[in-house]
Please model this.
Amino acid sequence: MSGTSAPGGNDEKADPEGNAAGEHRYHFAIDIDGEFAIFTLDTHGQVETWNAAAEHITGYGAGEILGKPFSVLYPKVPPDVPVPSDILARAAATGRAYYEGWHVRKDGTRFWASVLVIAQRREQGDLAGFAAVTHDFSQRHLIEAKLRRSEQRLQAMIDSVEDYAIFMSSPTGEVASWNTGAQRIKGYSASDIIGRHFSVFYPPEARAAGLPERMLETASTRGRSEAEGWRVRSDGSRFWADAIITPIRDDKGALQGFTKVTRDLTEHKRLEQLEHVGELAAATERAREEEQKRIARELHDDLGQKLTALKMSAIILQQEVEAGHDTSETAAKARGLVTQTDETMSAVRRIASGLRPTMLDDLGLLPAVEWLADEFSRRYGIKVNTRLSAGELEFSDTAATAIFRIVQEALSNVARHASATEVVVTIELDNSECEVRIEDNGRGADLASGRKPDSFGLLGIRERVRQLNGFAWFGNKPDGGFCGQSRFPIDAIVRR
Model:
């Protein structure tokens, strides 16, 4: 074979004490050929034989390399990388040595290769030299380097995600990787959790029911499993999460593990609960309004009629007594009965109107607010000015009730806390919104009076405003007094 023989009968020179071992090493080099660089070295590490693959890989022809130390194939390396003499010494001591790293071609370019050095010994046991097998792994090394960089970029991207817990597990569920989001959401550091079973994230009742194992089984058989429920942080606190598990398989379909992505939905769950509570509150308020409407109607129609009949009887009795010119105690009682009946009828009308004024259903929101303002002025002696310019709107029953109650509650707060002499109630259109404003000239909000923006009455107003998708603001006016302002989108308050 070309490129394999040593010049000038080098075989005999290489093994002066016995040609058998030299012949054996020489034929070892020339008989194995192909993609592996095969060459032999003497006991000092100088090249004795060289095959065609070695010439192809390194660029050195046999005439250029034979007799030279094989260290010419090695670049200058860092201190922690073995030098050629170390490789030979290890092979001489243990029988063989393996190294994978950078080598240098004749033209100075570097290539990544593996080299296996095998010690060759004579029959007497002393060292006769070395046989070396080298394989060019440059292409594989390049692919592996690209893969490592790709993995590093992917891991960096995963680590940068803080809103999702992303980790990998073994086929049986032991945590194998951990990102920043997982640490933030679940509270475990990587050193705390890697190697532990992912079932630690589940509450006791879920573990007892076998939920973690069922999720792995579902993911393995169906390609994906997803579940939403309570999970447990490292400190024992619970959070509501959505978790997706997908299997990882090799190119033959064998299960290698799982990836798990978890999203913390605690705030979302809390909002859902608040929305549910809001819906219940709205339903309760509607039921209460209907009940108040029913009671008010009964007071106005049924009891009112009976009181009217009673008053007519009392008037007739009074007239009959007075017609007989009776000035006795009986006449006085008759007159008192008429007066008491009048007062009772006024009280019943006031109670019925407080529950639900009939004119709110009969005439609409704005007339009902006018009536409310007049009643408030008569009862408390506080002047109320109304500015109602939203008459072209046809308010829905829900909106009319809510806005009437807002004005009613605001006037009640004025009577209890404001020490005001005048109130202005405004309901007007402003572009695509309806504004409701109640302002007084009282002493404003202060802690001493208990009249503050988060008081119970104002919280009730806020809730009614929220149910109509509106916005509420409360605070002191610059020139003194207090103002409550609510704004509603037109679409949320008109009748459909």
In short: The radius of gyration is 48 Å.
